[in-house]
Design goal:
Bound molecules: iron/sulfur cluster
CATH architecture: 2-Layer Sandwich
Number of strands: 4
Largest sheet: 2 strands, antiparallel
CATH topology: Alpha-Beta Plaits
Strand content: 5-15%
Strand order of the largest sheet: 1-4
Oligomer: single chain
Order of helices and strands: EHEEEH
Shape: globular
Structural class: alpha+beta
Distance between the termini: 28 Å
Number of helices: 2
């Protein structure tokens, strides 16, 4: 189980979630942020701070954003050693 970042993060990327995450398991590219599915401890601390409600438990991911489950996981393929996102 993991939490997922979906479409509303695109263009926002304010990283309130990064500040809230106790295990630094949130990463980024130029488009959005992504939660590492194996590093996430399912604490839910990132959900409320997100100003655009982009973060969902995978069981509660809205159907229209179901692709984001695989997109969050695929982001980490072949990226061992990637540094987590940092709040600026
Ligand atoms: S649920 Fe907790 S561990 Fe997972 S990304 Fe959010 S704050 Fe981090
Ligand atoms: S708090 Fe929400 S909008 Fe901001 S970076 Fe995290 S997921 Fe994206």
């Amino acid at each position: 189980m993991t939490y997922i970042i979906a479409e509303p993060c695109i263009g926002v990327k304010d990283k309130a979630c990064v500040e809230a995450c106790p295990v630094d398991c949130i990463y980024e590219d130029d488009t959005q942020l992504y939660i590492h599915p194996e590093e996430c401890i399912d604490c839910g601390a990132c959900v409320d701070p997100c100003p655009v409600d982009a973060i969902f438990h995978e069981d509660e991911l809205p159907e229209k954003w179901s692709d984001y489950l695989a997109m969050n996981s695929d982001f980490f393929e072949g990226k061992e050693g990637l540094e987590p996102a940092r709040k600026d």
